[in-house]
Amino acid sequence: MASILPYIQIILSLLLIGAILLQRSEAGLGSAFGADGMNMARYSRRGFERILFIGTILIAVLFAVTAFATLFFRS
Question: Considering all CA atoms of the chain, what is the largest pairwise distance in Å, rounded to the nearest integer?
Fold first, then answer.
């Protein structure tokens, strides 16, 4: 198990990078600090964008779990 965890992490990291890059990025640095907060308050994700968002969270959680598993199996 410990021998395949690095390969799983590599695959998950590539999937995570791809999922993040596919997401909508209309928000600039100013809206990250609340400059355009009124417009984003009424925004909801729908369709493929919602699936991509939830998938990104799932991939990130799986990556974190495999990182902790690597620490557990290494010792």
Answer: 50
